[in-house]
Amino acid sequence: MFQKIENFVLDCVFPTYCLGCGRFLKSEAKTHLCPDCRNKISVNSGLFCPICFKRIAAGNFNKCRHSAKASSLDFLGIAVSYENPLVRELIHKYKYGFAKEISQTLSEILIRYWEKTCPDDLKRYCLVAVPLHRQRFNWRGFNQSEELAKILSQRLSLPLNNNCLIRRKKTASQAEIKDFQERKNNLQNAFSLKNQGPLENKNIILLDDVFTSGATMEAAAAALKSGGAKRIIGLAIAK
């Protein structure tokens, strides 16, 4: 009863509208997309090569020959395309509109993707969110990747380890750098390990919001591999 009263008050004072079509959404739905707009987002299946982005069939752990030596990521998971205007709107408001509550909607997209892709031995993985530098965390008020990781940890019953990796170097925003080599240079030595021992022979799902050039996730994965991580799947909402 109290929850229904709370939802009613929230709907009156802070109404939520679909970011796609503007339709009113009840707060109890915990989403920013109506069912019709949600269905306009095509969700991928299967993993991808982190170098050539060739699709690998769901449940297949045969690495593409490109990624065998050229990447610290073993596989890449991309839920949807960033070209979808609804996806762009959601992510932009989440990151730059400080709309922390959108993590619920974005995590649902990630879960839909894993339901189509989920390998049989997923339970042997732990989640690690790409960390933010302290100054950027203070500016935004939350780590967008960590908020998603918390929800996925609960929904998929996966352990969450956000104490192993730190961002020790404040870097320029990757979105402002167009050249790939400059992006790599920008992130050189940006990540380091806080607690190394627990990573030995661990399988990790490394979570970030967007995969653009891959420089951020690659640098974070390299730090995890230096601590003994066995297999790393880089997971992002969109590319």
Mind sketching the topology for me?
Layout: H1 2-13, E1 16-17, E2 24-25, H2 35-38, E3 47-48, E4 55-56, H3 67-70, E5 75-80, H4 85-96, H5 103-117, E6 125-129, H6 134-140, H7 144-156, E7 165-167, H8 180-186, E8 191-193, E9 203-210, H9 215-226, E10 231-238
Parallel strand pairs: 5-10, 6-9, 9-10
Antiparallel strand pairs: 1-2, 3-4, 7-8
Q: Can you put this structure into words, describing what you see?
A:
This protein is α/β, with parallel strands linked by helices. Helices cover 36% and strands 17% of the residues. It contains 9 helices and 10 strands. The strands form 4 sheets. The chain has a 4-stranded parallel beta sheet, with helices on both faces. α5 packs across α7. The longest helix has 15 residues, at 103-117. The protein is globular, with a radius of gyration of 18 Å. The protein starts with a helix and ends with a strand.
**Helix coverage percent of residues?**
25-40%
Question: What's the main sheet like?
Answer: 4 strands, parallel
Structural shape: globular
Please provide the ordered H/E string of secondary-structure elements: HEEHEEHEHHEHHEHEEHE
Mean pLDDT: 83
The neighbouring-strand order within the major sheet is: 5-10-9-6
Under CATH, the topology of the largest domain is which? Rossmann fold
Q: How would you summarize what this structure contains?
A:
The chain is of the alpha/beta class and 239 residues long.
